[in-house]
Amino acid sequence: MVLLNALAPESCDLSPLESKEPLERATLVLAQAEQIGCRMYLSPKDIVDGSSNLNLAFVAHIFKER
Fold this sequence. Notes:
With 66 residues, the chain is mostly helical. It is 61% helix and 0% strand. The longest helix has 14 residues, at 22-35.
């Protein structure tokens, strides 16, 4: 979330960090990523489960697109 905010502050804010529910927070992060064209095949559950390969691919995709 902080990365998305740093790369696209006009579209991505830090409001998902206020959510205490991890699945909801992950859903909000992916919704903001979609707003800037960086949504991949990653699901909120993948983020919460800590799938390191998918999370790394997501971050790489964000840098590639932005």
